[in-house]
Amino acid sequence: MAAPQRRSSREIRVGGIAIGNGHPVSVQSMTNTDTRDAEATLAQINRLAALGCDLIRVAVPDREAAAALKTITRRSPLPVIADIHFDYTLALAAIDNHVAAVRLNPGNLSDREAVGKVAMRARAAGIPIRVGANSGSIRPALVREMMNKGLEHDDAIAEALVLSALRECEMLENFGFHDIKVALKSSSVPVTVAAYRKFAARTDYPLHIGITEAGTPARGIVKSAVGIGALLLDGIGDTMRVSLTADPADEVLAGVRILEACGLRDASPEIVSCPTCGRTEIDLIGLANKVEEAVAEIKAGGRTIHLRKIAVMGCAVNGPGEARDADLGIAGSRAGKVVIFRFGEIVGAFDPAEGFEYLKMEILNHSKFVSE
Amino acid sequence: MAAPQRRSSREIRVGGIAIGNGHPVSVQSMTNTDTRDAEATLAQINRLAALGCDLIRVAVPDREAAAALKTITRRSPLPVIADIHFDYTLALAAIDNHVAAVRLNPGNLSDREAVGKVAMRARAAGIPIRVGANSGSIRPALVREMMNKGLEHDDAIAEALVLSALRECEMLENFGFHDIKVALKSSSVPVTVAAYRKFAARTDYPLHIGITEAGTPARGIVKSAVGIGALLLDGIGDTMRVSLTADPADEVLAGVRILEACGLRDASPEIVSCPTCGRTEIDLIGLANKVEEAVAEIKAGGRTIHLRKIAVMGCAVNGPGEARDADLGIAGSRAGKVVIFRFGEIVGAFDPAEGFEYLKMEILNHSKFVSE
After folding, report:
1. Residue where a domain stops, chosen among B261, B289, B317
2. In this predicted model, what pLDDT tens digit does every residue of A15-31 receive, in sequence order?
3. Which residue in B137, B158, B223 is closest to A321 by CB distance?
4. Where in the sequence is the domain holding B174, given as residue range(s)?
5. pTM, 2 dp
6. What ipTM, to 2 d.p.?
7. DSSP letters of A332-372?
8. Out of A189, A245, A278, closest to residue B35 by CB
């Protein structure tokens, strides 16, 4: 259960990353640099890769951007996905410049023939295509049709998203192309979750999940965590993007944290800390942040920490229980002291600053250089 | 679907707030002031109430804190819940000082008789008791017993949480007391969600949901949104607390946003905004933040905004579709201009600063003082 039972889906490969068929759920983001500026785009990709991004999408709005892909794909540490709208010749150029996948909306290409040309070029290159429907681009007539069938408004949108996506798959299937992943996006969390559940039950295509236009981080991270998290806990979703009006680094960090919360990416060491309350006699917020920073610093130094869980607790009510369950624990005690726990045993009582230093030393003692 | 189908649960009342039986899911937080300092505690409660908090819990670690409840309950704008551990006489004192509910862990009271005394005093006062199990305080022997029955580790913890909570309910039921809500808390999201699903299927007690010791906001908001959101989307949960190692204001804001994301609290106006990408020619992040601030400012001024959705979009790809679906929209256009949409119609193209002022004026035009 720590890792949810995953829906069985067919496998596709985007560069070196396998998607579907039980493979780890990958985190995507999208560059917001000018794609024509290959150096700026590569610098951003490198930064996102270091934060845990697995796949990167770049907008390809014109021929110059498509040409820049040659440099970007050669030097990117991550598989590059071309984001194409309207002009199918840009998809062909992107494929020729070695992108690992193409995202397009067959519905906004010029005609059936254009879709076929992209499908044939993608098959020749051995790369998948991501299609999908977005509530911003589904036909209002289709939503009305679903409502006339008795579905209420939100359910009608979810069904329309599913039907739109199935039609896009069919456009590719008609050319014998099945190397597909699918997204169904709405800015409404309940609509999105309903649409993915419906689609997941009807096909075995791997799913790219996310809440579209989720907004600024304050609201967007919550919306994305609710929607993506609910799907992942049900085993639905093979790759994901948190879509924020923010630096793409925030998207990657949120994506990684959602996977960790769902038990789908190793969070080691997990740092649990209780809320402060009227019982707290120590600076718990400061202490929890210092422990998080110490862990981040040790990991950024290239070391792996071999601890499952570190507990930072304010007082003795739940503290000892949680600390006992953790590999290392620090809990507020009487007279402003803290108590350190190690694998369930009390090490001793310390002044807070001293206790923190002791804890940091213990964390370091349980870490190794990755190459060791 | 915008509001999930809710599990049917029995109704309890905490002061003026009804919990269960389909009533709105309420947001709780817990003060982190010294409860003995009634003025500081009341100042914090007032601040949290203004942010959307519905119920407030305060720690009652000693007699002086219990005595301060007299002042706190008289002047608090929110129903006050006393958090009691170990000493049942503090629960009795809190009830005498007019708290609206008591949270206690019968398992850590001294004996059966103590539980009975609290139950009888609560019944006389007509207030409910929240009980619950926490993975930090369940008996390791019970987890082992579940594992011996063939459950894997996490599932054994979830089942042990459920059995522990049921036993706590039973301790109160034995005194004819059924005015109960229940929490089942673990710092693991999958364990928490599994435990609530199991418990929800076996009883009709209203549920207080949350992820315990979720940590600092960066991780804790994601963990809480995933766990609480997944349950709410399934209709499980009648009141909730986001538990963060942070200012309780952050808990309330996150709680409100989770409800909004699930369609369980009116977010009007919902502000959707797309991520930036290589196609964006305007300062979209700045614009989205400015629109959010303008809306917050108008609402803080005591006005209600009669708009369902405002869309802030970077470009013309998904922009017009989303903007058409929104009551008001602003989308990046060619040559650094923005286009304003109003109820699906294009109003015109503007320079960004001018467009923002126009949008703000339109928002103001669609707002009214709450008293009007």
Report:
1. B261
2. 999 999 999 999 999 99
3. B137
4. 12-261
5. 0.90
6. 0.89
7. E-GGG-EEEEETTEEEEEE-HHHHHHHHHHHHHHTEEETT-
8. A278
